[in-house]
Design a protein that fits this description.
By secondary structure, this protein is an alpha+beta fold. About 50% of the residues lie in helices and about 10% in strands. Strand 4 and strand 5 form a beta hairpin.
């Protein structure tokens, strides 16, 4: 009986409701996004994004600190404009244009946003700029040559190792001049760990280049110091700390050349040193420039919709909603029709194997094709299940009938249980055991519980073991058993040796049964790209082309009468296929009437043991 689906749970109603909700949310989100985006764009055009302004100013200050002029700044300006989406312009103090990201002729904003001067800056947050107002990236004559850098790097390495002996994790930071600075951990005090002996002062001693630059700075500062009345002479042991509290060497210079301590004399001396340093570094830094961003300092406009604009937004939203509902209704009806057909077919009894017509090529059509494919597979599996039950009954009936018959005649006293009779009964029991073991292996493979104990395995050793195990059977059948493992030393497998011997043993046993006396069976292995190919080739009567696709089916044998004259239960090749699949490989067969057969196992290769490449 067909169940009636409530209206609120029908696919069409839910699809319509969901589409309407999506349309409403999308319109509202679009309107909100438009307002927000417009307001943000206006703010950015008016230069309100202070974080971006600071990044631009820091980048241009860094350029000025490392270049004596603005000749090559155009690329930097355009790169910053592309990244930030802002207009960036640089001019001299008299408004002569240096570089501009806007097209030629575009007027400048009324006022500059900032002045780019690395010798007089209060926006750069590095330690050096905070103490002296000079961008620490202006190095000038303090830049160390390679030889002095290497010497200081060696001293820094010695101090780092010394800290490590005290359990301190040192960090090496290189300043703009190229001098390495070693710090012990995250602000860790070396004295607390007894590591003050590591600070021998050698790393903090000025190099010849730094001494020359400091001497020049002292010469420049001396007139100002004399005018301020600062005494000269200096302290006997000044401390040079370029990576800590004295990054530019101001305190070192004052301590070495003056006797200024604290108070007015110290402030006057520091002022003289800063003025002299700017004079010393001025040839190495670009001259001051005015920075213009966006459209100036005008107040950003707030986006506000008029009643007319609001009415337009509401009208467009209503129109979008109506169109969405109409289109969704049409699409939903077309979607529901094939789904109803699928539902009706699925509700039919399983034994009918009902199929549905495929009327579209969209997702619903693909679903219908998949449904029909499942129906066909279920019908085929049902037929195979019936055939398997019949085959299992047939395979178990013969040995059980023989065992029961002989046991009954022995019980009735017709024959005596002599050794030949017991050997025959034991052989029939082994046949039953072999069939049951094969069925267990197949069941484990189907359930994915087949356990594999993998280990590195050389194909040649595997072939020799299988050949040795079947040498007696081959000799009794008058068949030559050969192996050909090749000479490729890189051919290795990562496989379960027991399961691989079982798979190859089944192939060899099958080949020996179907090869007449005087024939040959050859086991071979070769490397094929990343795979290893194992083959079992016989010179038997071959397999007809119409039977070749079924050789790996369970309980299938070429003898239609299912005679036991050649032995086998029809499960050996099926086990071979499942074992190959469990190892990530495949099994195949090639044959022709009167041309023999070639059974192939293609398995993933493995690197030789000990090879870490």
């Amino acid at each position: 009986m067909r169940r009636r689906i409530p209206l609120r749970k029908r696919l069409l109603v839910r699809l319509l409701f969901g589409s309407a909700l999506i349309a409403v949310c999308s319109v509202a989100a679009t309107a909100w996004l438009a307002v927000t985006t417009t307001t943000s764009a206006l703010k950015e055009e008016q230069g309100q994004d202070l974080a971006a302004d600071n990044r631009i100013l820091a980048r241009l200050s860094g350029y000025a600190a490392t270049h004596p002029d603005w000749a090559g700044v155009r690329r930097t300006v355009h790169d910053l404009a592309d990244r930030t989406g802002r207009r960036i312009a640089l001019t001299t103090a008299d408004r002569t244009l240096v570089a501009d990201s806007a097209p030629r002729g575009t007027p400048l904003p009324p006022r500059p946003a900032a002045t780019v001067d690395p010798l007089r800056t209060d926006t750069y947050t590095e330690t050096g700029a905070q103490l002296s107002g000079i961008d620490p990236r202006v190095v000038g004559p303090y830049r160390l040559p390679p030889a002095e850098r290497r010497k200081l790097d060696a001293l820094a390495a010695v101090r780092t190792r010394c800290y490590a002996r005290y359990g301190l994790r040192a960090t090496v930071v290189r300043t703009a001049s190229g001098r390495p600075v070693v710090t012990a951990g995250d602000g860790t005090d070396p004295a607390g760990y007894g590591a003050t002996g590591c600070e021998d002062g050698r790393l903090n001693t000025p190099t010849p280049t730094e001494e020359r630059a400091l001497d020049g700075l002292a010469e420049l500062a001396r007139p100002c110091l004399r005018k301020a009345g600062v005494e000269t002479g200096g302290r006997p042991f000044p401390t040079f700390d370029p990576g800590g509290k004295d990054p530019l060497g101001d305190r070192y210079l004052l301590a070495k050349y003056t006797a200024a301590g604290k108070g007015a004399d110290a402030r006057a001396a520091q002022s003289c040193v800063r003025t002299a340093r700017r004079t010393q570094l001025e040839p190495y830094a670009a001259p001051p420039a005015e920075l213009f961003l966006g459209i100036g300092d005008q107040n950003p406009a707030r986006f506000d919709m008029s009643p007319a604009n609001k009415a337009k937004v509401v009208g467009v939203a209503g129109l979008v909603l109506a169109v969405t509902v109409a289109v969704t209704a049409v699409v939903a009806v077309r979607l529901v029709r094939p789904l109803r057909a699928l539902t009706a077919a699925a509700q039919q009894p399983p034994e009918l194997h009902v199929r549905v017509p495929v009327t579209t090529r969209d997702e619903t059509g693909i679903l219908a094709e998949a449904f029909n494919g499942l129906t066909e597979r279920r019908e085929r599996l049902e037929a195979q299940r019936r055939a398997m039950v019949s085959d299992i009954a047939h395979e178990l009936r013969s040995p059980l009938t023989n065992i029961r018959g002989w046991l009954e005649v022995v019980r009735d006293g017709v024959v005596d249980p002599d050794p030949p009779l017991l050997d025959s009964l034991h052989e029939e029991a082994l046949v039953l055991q072999r069939i049951i073991d094969d069925l267990q292996d197949l069941a484990a493979a189907d359930a994915g519980t087949l356990r594999l104990h993998r280990e590195p395995l050389r194909p040649g050793d595997l072939l020799d073991q299988v050949a040795a195990a079947h040498r007696v059977a081959a000799g009794a059948a008058g068949v030559a058993l050969r192996t050909d493992a090749g000479t490729d030393a890189t051919a290795w497998l990562d496989a379960d040796p027991v399961r691989m011997r079982q798979a190859l043993g089944n192939l060899v046993s099958n080949a020996l049964r179907h090869t007449p006396a005087g024939g040959a069976v050859t086991l071979a292995a070769r490397r094929d790209g990343d795979d290893v190919v194992l083959t079992v080739t016989d010179t038997g009567h071959g397999i007809p082309p119409e039977d070749l696709p079924r050789v790996f089916d369970r309980f299938w044998r070429a003898e239609k009468s299912r005679s036991r004259r050649t032995g086998g239960s029809g499960l050996g090749l099926a086990i071979v296929r499942d074992l190959a699949a469990a190892h990530g490989g495949t099994a195949g067969a090639e044959s022709g009437p009167g041309a023999g057969s070639v059974f192939t196992l293609r398995l993933p290769g493995a690197p030789p043991p000990g090879d870490t490449a």
